[in-house]
Amino acid sequence: MTDQATFQHALRAAQARGDFAEIARLHHTAGDEALQRREPEQATHHFVRALAAYSQIGDVRGVGAMHVRLGNIALQRQQPHIATRHFRRALFAYEEAGHEKGLVGVYVGLGHVAAMQNRIDDARAYYDRALAILRRDLPETHPAVQSVLQHRNHLPSQDEK
Length: 161
Prior knowledge:
By secondary structure, the protein is mainly alpha-helical. The chain is built from 8 helices and no strands.
């Protein structure tokens, strides 16, 4: 869904049907596309609407996913308190849904917040939690594992704090 007219038409049709799952999907996709275009304000607009629709239908995983995305946008804006709030809400949603793999993004996000706030031990602990989940199913060479390791390994050592 790349053009605005197509999006608006699909959104109006979903709203007319009261199809909150489709409304959530449309806004979720539009938000991801806005992030790819480096338009965080537009992405936030869509993610907030997707979050409302996911909440309406009780899609806890969708709620968690939107909170992770909103937390990441807050991180990019250097808003650690807002990011933390979103990551904690995502943590609650994913725990409620029993969606352990979703927790990886939450722990990485909380690790970034802790690093931003110079809470190095907390950052390391969050990255370690993410790594523990990833390593259950993925080899050490997998890009997801390597990405978290890179963040963890770039933290200052105990001596540098």
